[in-house]
Amino acid sequence: MKAFHFFGLICCAILSLIPPLLVSIILAALVLNTHTGAATDYTSGMHLTSPPPPIEQPLTLRIITYNIADGYLFTNNRPERMRAIGALLTKLDPDIVGIQESFVEKDREILLEALSESRLRYHADYPAATVGNGLLTLSAYPIAETVFHRFENNNPWYKIHQGDWWAGKGIGLARIRLPSGSRIDFYNLHAQAERNDQANSKVRYRQMGELATFVNATRTISTPAFVLGDFNTRMDQPDLQRAMQGARLIPVVTMDSGIDAIFAAETPGYSITAVETLPISGETTGRNPPIFLSRAPTPSELLRMLFGPREVTPLSDHLGFMSTVIISPATVSNN
Prior knowledge:
Blueprint: H1 2-33, H2 46-49, E1 59-70, H3 78-92, E2 96-102, H4 105-114, E3 122-125, E4 136-139, E5 143-150, H5 164-167, E6 170-177, E7 183-190, H6 198-218, E8 225-230, H7 238-247, E9 249-251, E10 260-265, E11 270-280, E12 283-286, H8 299-307, E13 311-314, E14 320-329
Parallel strand pairs: 1-2, 7-8
Antiparallel strand pairs: 1-14, 2-4, 3-4, 5-6, 6-7, 8-10, 9-10, 11-14, 12-13
Helix pairs in contact: 3-4, 6-7
């Protein structure tokens, strides 16, 4: 009996440590989550100090947006999917790619290694928060400058199960230098998810206002600009309409792309036209059954993720989209 009594005391002592330990972890995460490692100051950026020469000849670009669902705990088969996504992007041969939900640094390295034979030799990410915002921009051309805007409006920190605040979501700008010396301003973003929570719609509405303000403040007015990503809303909704009107964004897709969209900003002196948009999907063989969640897994889901049999898995729970666009400089008349 004494042994059982002693064991019970030990268990009670351990259990008594769990609440303060959890509180300490959450408090530490709250402090760390405010950190943004990416460059955020655009007041002396290249759009002000060194405007590029204009694009003088029609230019065709293939542009992709793709949420690859790469995160701890809520997705699995990540290394296999990253290799397959790298192979698919190499085959598609785009010029610029905006990736969302590339949260895991080790998996990002696998993806970049899988792209080593592609033209996508340049990349930029935008470190922020405890788990990172998951934004990754890939380019066939050098990236001259990067700037990140972290959304000031986000859902509350205490909605831990939703995860958006912890991800430090925002907008990553990459200024991409073309062989001619001209540039493209490329904005990659991931907005607040709905998650059956009406308050999140209000958050996202304010985020779309931030998007318009950031684009207007940072874009090179004489340079074509593209804005794309996982908007978590559709083009006919008031929140996305706010961004489209505020930043003068025009869709450059030829099909319904749902919540994953590609826009061009209206630019004096240029017309930008979408020629074709292709959905991007694929599958590969994973180590375990495919599971894609927007929340923490249940015990049974976790067991399947860790110990389930090998199965074919989609590359992501999102479709990607590739638009072929033509940038045409305005014809100058000598008359």
